[in-house]
Amino acid sequence: MSIFQTKEWWSTKVGQDEEFQPTHICIANIDNETPERPKLLVGSFSGYLRIYQPVRREFRIEDQLFEQGFGSPIIELQAGQFLLGDQNLYLALLFVKKIAIYSFVSNPKSGMASKLISENALARNAYNMTIGRFGGTKKDMICVQSCDGMLMVFEADKLSCMCQINDFVLPGPLVYYPVLDCFAIQNSNYEVEVYRYSSIGAIYNSSQKDSKKLQADWTFNVGEMANDMVLVKRSEKVQDLLVLSESMLFVISQNGTLKAQKKFDYTPMSIYVYQTGDPKAYADEAQRPLNFIIASTTHHIMVYSEFQLIWASK
């Protein structure tokens, strides 16, 4: 039996009979407070955005800094630096039919207030999004995946490019690969595919869009539906892709080859990668152990180090 236990430090009930998914939570210093203090942002399918800043163990009413209803279901929220030459953080809110960017300002007397910076309508119903500095830009851009397999790339105030994915029936996880300047998705053949941002732009700007098909840089068949995908930084120029399927975890190199895999005897739902120890203790950063936490449908969290289960709790 483990001598360690999980203890609840802070909690609150968010809304009444509202529904949520993992993409409804974000942690960021969204009001750009100095000194920096992270806030907990929570959206919902009911269209509400709430911002919390836990201070003590028990919830107090002053822990909730902001609440606003947007009248449309929120699909996902992410914080980023979306304006050129501006180091402040802004919040990207993905709705079914639009993507909007908001700024937040805190006032000691009036509390936190939001301001709409930009808004773009979507040609298709949105499923999820990812952000990054696509093409080496100096600001964050947004890539939205639609429910029918279209990738739509937005700058702060305009559509940059878009392209339809081939062999697509159901949407899945979407990850931006900074080292490769690519997007990783899963197609309907249970294959993870990686597409270059430059290829999407080339097809969008081509005069023969209908005759061109987006070609994947590489494809890897995981054989199951992917529940989650995350990147692991091994060095400045090397990143591995972790794909969590219905019963397996795959570690895939950035050239599309399998590096490791593990089968679980439970159904994993999501994964979180973390680092421990001093990076200087390793001559090569790639030698650092791979540490990750798995959440399962049985309400357990499992902590692994190099695929060895070191702790579990319910």
**What is the H-and-E element order?**
EEEEEEEEEEEEEEEHEEEEEEEEE
Query: What is the subunit organization of this protein?
Result: single chain
Poorly predicted ranges: none
Strands, count: 24
Give the helix proportion (percent range): under 10%
The order of strands across the largest sheet is: 1-2-3-4
**Overall pLDDT confidence:** 90
Secondary structure topology:
Layout: E1 25-28, E2 39-43, E3 48-52, E4 64-69, E5 74-80, E6 90-95, E7 98-107, E8 111-121, E9 126-132, E10 141-146, E11 150-155, E12 158-164, E13 175-177, E14 182-186, E15 191-196, H1 197-205, E16 218-221, E17 226-235, E18 238-245, E19 248-252, E20 258-263, E21 268-274, E22 291-296, E23 301-305, E24 308-313
Antiparallel strand pairs: 1-2, 2-3, 3-4, 5-6, 6-7, 7-8, 9-10, 10-11, 11-12, 13-14, 14-15, 15-16, 17-18, 18-19, 19-20, 21-22, 22-23, 23-24
Structural overview:
By secondary structure, this protein is an all-beta fold. The protein folds into three domains: 9-121, Lipocalin (Beta Barrel), CATH 2.40.128; 125-221; 227-314, Thrombin, subunit H (Beta Barrel), CATH 2.40.10. 3% of the residues lie in helices and 48% in strands. A four-stranded antiparallel sheet has the order 1-2-3-4, with no helix packed on it. Strands 5-6-7-8 form a four-stranded antiparallel sheet, with no helix packed on it. Strands 9-10-11-12 form a four-stranded antiparallel sheet.
